[in-house]
């Protein structure tokens, strides 16, 4: 495979948790199970959005204009980007809305679905998707210029930020993890380690909160070689401790073929996790960039809705300066 062997697409998972029709479906799926309202499983916080999708798509247009097409995966919803980002750029990258029913074709018995592990397991089934694509959460924002070889090498490798850790060390970390309301949280590292164990490996590639390059053919291969993976990730409508991460699976399968290039996250990522009880969190973390320090290429704003109101206002103004609205 060469650098120009295939185009590169972007896939973004998006949900409007304030949509009454969607909320009715979600509440019906929750039933009387209180666990599904925990923030780490299926609480409202997981689905709350403050139009981060606009910055996500704007960042791709401004800083990764080589992307061929943007696919936004939703459940009967539409972010109507023509009213926002569509007006900010003269010739924006084409956007296609993909409903869950499309990627879950043949597996409709699992719908409706309210957790990303299952949805990401199916994204490689998007009709027309390029062999090479980059998976985004809607709170991932490209904030500086990237090139195709930041995600894919000329000889067919995927490139991602992270580090390897032996599974026995992750087991020890999980064993000492404190409980919340009598139960341990369903953590990002736990889901990644589940993936490693599913594929019979003894170490886990710990990904950072950044857009992840993916190979469509490896998604197909996962289904062929590990057919049990579909039920593992799709039988629960909300996050569950048994699930795995499809992006991790794609990377581990690439690593087995010698096609994963690991790079340091230093200088490449900015992970922001504000809370209402930390009123100056965003201002403190953004201060160097207010003063002229270049932004890294990958920024993640985790739970902006939880930020102190003044902090949130300043972040929104910061994004509006980065992506001027015409």
Query: Strands across the major sheet, in which order?
Result: 3-2-1-4-8
Radius of gyration: 19 Å
Amino- and carboxy-terminal Cα gap: 40 Å
Return residue spans where pLDDT drops below 50 for at least 5 consecutive residues: none
Determine the mean pLDDT: 92
- Overall helicity: 25-40%
Describe the fold and architecture.
- There is one protein chain.
- This protein is an alpha/beta fold and 326 residues long.
- It has helices at 20-30, 52-63, 85-88, 100-103, 116-122, 167-175, 188-198, 216-225, 228-234, 246-256, 281-290, 309-322, and strands at 8-13, 70-74, 95-99, 132-137, 140-142, 158-166, 203-207, 212-215, 260-263, 269-272, 298-301.
- The strands form 3 sheets. The protein has a 5-stranded mixed sheet, sandwiched between helices. Strands 5-11-10 form a 3-stranded mixed sheet. Strands 7-6-9 form a 3-stranded mixed sheet.
- The chain is globular and about 45 Å long.
Main features:
326 residues, alpha/beta, five-stranded mixed beta sheet, 12 helices, 11 strands, 34% helix, 17% strand
Write the layout of secondary structure elements.
Layout lengths: L7 E6 L6 H11 L21 H12 L6 E5 L10 H4 L6 E5 H4 L12 H7 L9 E6 L2 E3 L15 E9 H9 L12 H11 L4 E5 L4 E4 H10 L2 H7 L11 H11 L3 E4 L5 E4 L8 H10 L7 E4 L7 H14 L4
Parallel strand pairs: 1-2, 1-4, 2-3, 6-9, 10-11
Antiparallel strand pairs: 4-8, 5-11, 6-7
Helix pairs in contact: 11-12
């Amino acid at each position: 495979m060469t650098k120009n062997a295939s185009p590169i697409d972007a896939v973004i998972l998006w949900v409007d948790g304030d949509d009454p029709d969607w909320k009715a479906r979600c509440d019906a799926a929750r039933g009387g199970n209180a666990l599904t309202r925990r923030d780490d499983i299926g609480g409202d916080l997981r689905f709350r959005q403050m139009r981060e999708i606009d910055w996500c798509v704007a960042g791709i247009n401004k800083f990764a204009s080589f992307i061929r097409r943007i696919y936004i995966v939703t459940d009967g919803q539409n972010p109507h980007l023509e009213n926002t980002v569509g007006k900010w750029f003269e010739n924006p990258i084409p956007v296609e809305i993909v409903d869950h029913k499309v990627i879950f074709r043949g597996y409709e018995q699992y719908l409706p679905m309210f957790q990303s592990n299952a949805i990401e397991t199916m994204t490689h089934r998007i009709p027309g998707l390029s062999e090479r694509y980059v998976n985004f959460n809607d709170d991932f924002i490209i904030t500086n210029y990237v090139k195709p070889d930041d995600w894919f090498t000329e000889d067919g490798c995927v490139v991602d930020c992270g580090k390897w850790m032996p599974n026995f060390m992750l087991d020890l970390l999980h064993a000492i993890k404190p409980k919340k309301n009598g139960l341990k949280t369903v953590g990002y590292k736990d889901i990644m380690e589940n993936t490693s164990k599913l594929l019979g490996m003894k170490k886990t590639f710990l990904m950072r909160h950044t857009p992840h390059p993916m190979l469509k053919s490896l998604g197909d291969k996962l289904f062929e070689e590990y057919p049990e993976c579909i039920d593992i990730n799709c039988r629960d409508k909300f996050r569950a401790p048994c699930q795995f991460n499809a992006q991790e699976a794609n990377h581990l399968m690439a690593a087995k073929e010698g096609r994963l290039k690991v790079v340091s996250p230093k200088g490449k990522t900015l992970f922001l996790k504000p809370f209402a009880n930390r009123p100056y969190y965003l201002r403190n973390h953004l201060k160097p960039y207010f003063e002229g320090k270049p932004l890294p290429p990958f920024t993640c704003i985790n739970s902006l809705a939880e930020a102190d109101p003044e902090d949130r206002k300043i972040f929104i103004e910061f994004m509006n300066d980065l992506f001027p609205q015409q």
